[in-house]
Each structure stands twice: as C-alpha cells, then as structure tokens.
Amino acid sequence: MTLTQAAQLTKRFILSLVIVIFLGITGFIGYQIWYSRYIASLPPKLEQPDTKFGTLPQPSFPPVNVTSSNFSYSLDTTTGGLPTFPKLTKVYFMPKPTATLLSGDKANNQAAKFNFTNPPEILTEVKYRYQDGSRILDIDLDTGNFIYLAEASSSAEPAEDDKTLGENFKEFLLSKGLLKDELRPSQAKVINLSLDNNLKTLSLWPENINKLPIVTPKFNDALVVGTVLKSARLLENYQSLEYTFWPVDIKTFATYPLKEATQAFEDLKLGKGVVIIQPPLPQVSITAVYLAYFEQESYTPYLQPVFVFEGPRFVAYVGAIKEEYISSTK
C-alpha cells in the first residue's frame, strides 16, 4: 500500500468516525427530548398512604344532646362552595405518660407551688387531692395534669386589660413550671364572663402542627384554661385552672387518606358530626370549613385531624380520616 492510499483510507476513516459521532449525538439528543415529553405526558403519580398505625380509634368527641342531622345547612363561604384539601394527611403519635416512683414527689412539689402544705388525700392509685379550706387541687400522677379550684379574691387594683391578662397568664404558668415549649408561641384568648368585665377566662393553645390549628371539645376553651378575677398575676386571683397537656411526637407519624370535603359535608348532614356550639335556629349558615387537629381531654395514642364547620353561633366537627381506617367500636 502506497502512502497516498494510506492517506486516503485515513481520511475516509476519520470522516466515517465524525459521521457516526454526529449521528450518535443527534440520536441521543432526540431520545432525551422524546423521553422528557413522554414522562411529561404520563399522569401524575399519586402518593400512597402508609397507614403505619393500622386502624385508628374513633375520636372521643364530647357527648351532646343533639345530632348534626337536626339542622339544615347552607354553604356561605367566600367561594360559595367547599375548599379543596390534600388527599393525604399526617396522624401523629402521642406517647402515653405513666406514673413512676417519683410521681408522688412531683405532685407534692407541684402542690407546694400552689401553696398547699397538707399531705394529699389519695383518691386512687394515680390521683391525689390537696385541700386547704375552699381551695382544691386534683393531680393525675400519670400525666401531671390537674384541676385547681378556689374562691378568687378581688384586689382594689383596677382590672388588667386583655393583653396584660394574657401576658401575666403565661408568666404565671412559667413561674409554676407549666409553660411548655409548645405553648410559648401562643397568645392567650380572653373571654369575658361578667357584666363588669372583671371575671374572665384565659385559654392557651399549643402551636399549630403541620400548619393546622388545634381544636378542643369546647372549641372556645383550650385544654389549658384559667378563670381569673381582675388579674392573672397572682394565685389569689384564680378561681380555677384546668391544665391538660398532651405531648405530641411530631417525628413519629403515619399518613392516612382524607375524606373528600363533599363527603364530610354529607356526614355532617347525616348526623355523623358532633355539634360543639349549638345554634339557636335550625337553619345554619356555614361560613368556614377547614382542617384542624383534635385534642381531647382524655389520653389517646394518636393525634387525628377533623373537619371544622363554622358559622355564626355554630361549630361542628366531622372526623377527617376515611371511615375504613377508623375502628367501628369506641
């Protein structure tokens, strides 16, 4: 083979190689464009619930003397219809508190902060009662939750405004070692109970969980609620203090499918909801529908969401998890 022939073969080889590389790159780019369009044309993949907690217990709604089917409803929301909600929601684990050998000492220390010096009356294995005249403190040894009752005394000082009442309520709880981290961001809700504006209730809710508010069996009252006369600064001003706090493990959760909002509304009309605030008339205007987590007064292992139907002088709850994932027995 001459040098001229060798040069020609080399040129042909290089030209062929360039053509192959060009075709390969063009084909690869074309495939990428086709594949991206193919993926985009596929229907979105639906996230599946893991339901790791299995069948959930029914929410323990408060007993009521009417059913939600006793009323007729009109939707008067800002859109005139029901809002759109996600398909899935989180259900959180709530660790069960139990009494220990130190629970009695902890109860005594808590009672001392409320100026009780007498030994407790043992009502049950897990409940102590401290009494001093008309003042009573009942403490649950398992949870540390309690109810305090007294005859509040009124000072000659003027009544505190609502903002000051709320601030002093949180300071009072802090001084007793009761202001949990979850309660710190909350602003106390103040409700007037008397014509002279001296007797008021103060409620403190935990912060929102997964961007959803917390609701309770009484709706307007949190599970941490006090009744005070003029001031929330001193123990002597407290007529009552109900303290129920349930820790929520926000790192331990499972996902469950939500009911459609239309199904929840039908459940309300069929009597499967619970009327928390009963309206004076049988015709109910619903102005807001939203999701919230329901905290009950007794312990439950799971924090579950509910649909809240709200209107003028009316509030009702409907369980939000699809019924096939809820136990049929209470």
Description:
The chain has four helices and 17 strands. Strands 3-4-5-6-11-10-8-7 form an eight-stranded antiparallel sheet, covered by helices on one side. The mean pLDDT is 91. The protein is elongated. The protein has helices at residues 3-41, 103-113, 162-175, 261-269; strands at residues 72-75, 88-93, 121-124, 127-132, 135-140, 146-149, 189-192, 199-204, 214-215, 224-229, 238-243, 249-257, 274-277, 283-286, 288-294, 302-311, 314-319. The relative contact order is 0.19. The chain has three domains: 1-42; 68-94 and 249-325, Beta Barrel (Lipocalin); 103-243, TATA-Binding Protein (2-Layer Sandwich), CATH 3.30.310. By secondary structure, the protein is α+β, with helices and mostly antiparallel strands.
CATH architecture of the largest domain: 2-Layer Sandwich
SSE string: HEEHEEEEHEEEEEEHEEEEE
> Largest beta sheet, briefly?
8 strands, antiparallel
CATH class of the largest domain, named Alpha Beta
**What's the structural domain tally?**
3
Give me the number of helical elements: 4
**Beta-strand residue percentage:** 25-35%
The side-by-side strand order for the widest beta sheet comes to 3-4-5-6-11-10-8-7
**Uncertain regions: pLDDT < 50 for 5+ in a row?**
none
Q: So what's the overall shape?
A: elongated
Q: How many strands appear in the DSSP assignment?
A: 17
N- to C-terminal distance? 96 Å
Radius of gyration: 31 Å
List keywords for this structure.
330 residues, alpha+beta, Lipocalin, TATA-Binding Protein, 3 domains, 8-stranded antiparallel beta sheet, 7-stranded mixed beta sheet, 22% helix, 28% strand, elongated
